[in-house]
Design a protein that fits this description.
The chain has about 180 residues and is an alpha+beta fold. Helix content is about 25%, strand content about 40%. It is an enzyme of class 3 (hydrolase). GO terms for molecular function: magnesium ion binding; nucleoside diphosphate phosphatase activity; ribonucleoside triphosphate phosphatase activity. InterPro entries: DUF402, FomD-like_sf, Ntdp-like, SA1684.
Amino acid sequence: MTIPAAGTTIEIHSYKHNGQIHRIWKETIVLKGTKMEIIGGNDHTAVTESNGKTWITREPAICYFHARHWFNVIGMLREDGIYYYCNLSSPFVIDDEALKYIDYDLDIKVYPDMTYVLLDEDEYEEHKRSMGYPKIIDQILKNNISTLTYWIRQKKGPFAPDFVDTWYERYLKYRKY
C-alpha cells in the first residue's frame, strides 16, 4: 500500500459487496496521508455513478477515511453550516489506482446542530439479502454505528470543533484554481 503524500491528487472508488463499482470521485487532494488515516479535500469534483452518469459536487468537502473503522465521513461546507455524510463502509485500502472501500448502504446524515439520522435501512436489508452479507458484517456494522454515533455526540475525530474548517484551510493552500 503506497500512502499518498499531502498535496497529491487521488481518485476515490466506492464498491458494493459484490465487487461492482458503485461511485468514483475523480479528484480529491490528499491533506494528510498515513497508514491509519487519509484526510482529503475536494470541491466541484466529478462523480461517476455505476450506471455511467456523471455529476459535479456542489460544495467543498473534507473527507475522512480510517484503516480500522468501518465508516468514512464527508464534511460538506455549506452556507448554513457543516453537514456530515457518514458512510458505513469497509476500512479503506489504497493502491496506485485509487483509495477504495466497500459501501454497505447505511448512512448517517449529521446536521450543523449535530442532530443526526440513520438512512437507507431498507436498502441495507435488501442488499444484505441479495448480496449475502455474512452475519459478521452485520455485527461489525452495528458496532460501528455505535462508535460513529458516540463520535458524533462527543464531537470526536472529524466531528470535533474546527476539524473541517482547519482541514479546509489546508485544502485551499493545495488547490490549483
